[in-house]
Design goal:
Elements lengths: L1 H9 L1 H7 L2 H9 L1 H9 L9 H20 L5 H26 L2 H6 L15
Helix pairs in contact: 3-6, 4-6, 5-6
Pfam family, one: MPC
Function: Mediates the uptake of pyruvate into mitochondria.
InterPro entries: MPC
Length: 122
């Protein structure tokens, strides 16, 4: 399998693909989903609901474009599918935090119960 890939890579078709925008466009675009996946670990207070929704819509539109363009650009489709999924998860985190009580749960500070010391007879 590796030798087949190497042979294809050395062929004019392989070189043409790797030096085209069908390859480098999606590769450069992978920064968005990678950043979105990294942001899943961050605090909900820094999520911009407007921007996250806009990025999710953008990725869904370009998923359709990647599917409809001839020849189909599977790399671009995968990139936008990953980004749309990550942005929708971020949107869910945003809505949960600001509108469904997640903020209130986080703000509740559990006070440690301190038992009163009893005087010991000396």
């Amino acid at each position: 399998m590796a030798s087949t890939f190497v042979n294809w890579l050395k062929s004019p078709a392989g070189r043409q693909y790797f030096f085209s925008t069908h390859f480098w466009g999606p590769v450069a675009n992978w920064g968005l989903p990678l950043a979105a996946l990294a942001d899943l670990q961050k605090d909900e207070t820094i999520i911009s609901g407007t921007m996250t929704t806009a990025l999710a819509c953008y990725s869904m539109v370009f998923m359709r474009f990647a599917w409809r363009v001839q020849p189909r650009n599977y790399l671009l489709f995968a990139c936008h599918a990953t980004n749309a999924t990550a942005q929708l998860v971020q949107d869910a985190r945003f809505v949960n935090y600001w509108y469904l009580g997640g903020r209130d749960k986080k703000l509740v500070v559990k006070q440690p119960e301190v038992e009163p010391k009893q005087a010991t007879p000396s």
